Fold this protein.
Amino acid sequence: MKRSVLFVLCLAVVATAAPAASASPARAERGRYIVVLRDSVGRSGNVAAEHAARYGAGVSFVYGTALKGYAATLTEPAAARISRDPRVAWVEPDRLMHATAQSLPTGVNRIEGDLSSQVAGNGSGAVSSPAVAIIDTGIDLDHPDLNVIASVNCTGGGPFRKKCGTGGDDDNGHGTHVAGTVGARDDSNGVVGVAPGAPLVAVKVLNSKGSGYTSWIAAGIDWVAANAASRGIKVANMSLGGSGSDDGNCGNSNNDAMHKSVCGLVNGSGVTLVAAAGNSTKDLAGFVPAAYDEVLTVTAVADFNGQPGGGAAATCRSDVDDTAADFSNWAVKAADQAHTIAAPGVCIRSTWLSGGYHTISGTSMASPHVAGTVALCLSSATCSGTPAQIASKLRTDAQNADASNAYGFVQDPNSSPITGRYYGYLEYAGGY
C-alpha cells in the first residue's frame, strides 16, 4: 500500500508502491487521488464526468496528452469502486512534493559557459530558441534578468478543472533561481545564465512552501506536452522530487502516474527532461524523477571559484572545492549511471524574487546548468535527434572534456571514484 508523502524540490520522502488497479487504493491525504486510464480510452474527460456523476468524484484536473486520466477527491469506497472500472489502469493516492534549496554554486564559469558560442558574460550572448520549461515553484514574471514568454499555474486544482490556470508567478524563490541559471540575460545586471536570454516558460507545480502533489506535477507535465510544439519548448527542468523508483515500464508496472507523464513528454513530445539527483546522500535509484531512465539526471559538485584544480576556500557553506557535493545523491546501477551527469551545485548565485539575487545550494541548482546547456546545444545546432541522443551527446562531451583530469573533479570516474558511487562526468558547455 502506498502512503501519502511529501514531495519537495529535490528532496525525498517515503512512498511505498501504489496498489494495482484491481486492489483497494491506499488512503490518500485528504481523500486526494489520481485515476490513470488505459491508453485505449478515448476522452479522459468523458470518463471523469461519468465518475463524478456516479461516484461523487471531485475532479480537479483532467489529463489527456502525456497520460490519460484525472485527479480528484474521493472517498475510499469510491476510489476502490473506480479502481475496478475496466477502463482504469490504476488509482493512486495523490502525494505531496516539496522544493529543496540547501545552498548553491557559481557554476557557469566552471562549466566553461564563457567559452560557448554565446560567450556567456561578454554582454552580448542571446539564445532565441528553444524555450525551456521550468517545472517548479513558478518564476518571478517581472524579473528584468529573465525572458519569460509564458506561464501557467497547475497548483491547487478546482472544481472539475480540466487545465492548468493562469498565473505562474513565483512565491517561493526556488523556481526563479533555477530559471536564472538556465537563462539569465547577458547584460550589465545581476547574473548570466548558461543559455543567456533563453525563452523561459514558468510551469508552477509547487506552492509557496515548495510543496506540490503528484497531481499538480502531472498536470504541469501534461501542459508542457500539449504546448511544446506551439511554444517551442524542447527542454524542461525538474529540480524537485520524492521517493520512488523506476519500474522500467513508464510507470505501468508500479502504478506511477508521474513516470507515465514523463514518458509521454519525452517520448511523445520530444522534450529533453533534466532532473536533479536529490540531496539525501544516497543512491538516486530510490528517488523520482531522478531514477527514471528517460531523464538526464544531475548530481552536484562543490566549486567555490569557478576554476578546476581544487584548493579554493569554502564560501557560503562547508564543503571541499572540486569534489562531489557532500549532500548529493549518486548512481549505483549501470542503468542509472547511463543517464547521470554532474554539474556545479554549491553556493550558486542566481535570480530571486522581487527582481533580486540570492545564493543557495543543492542538486536543484546543479540541474539547471545542464538544462541550460541542452538549450545552448540545440540553439547552436550542435545537438539534434531524440532526447536520448541529446543526453548521450552531453554525457560523451563531458567525458571527453574530463579525460585529461585537468577539467574534472575528485570522485569523477577519471579521478578518485568512490566504489559504489557514480556521480558522472562534469558537464561541459564550452563546445556548444
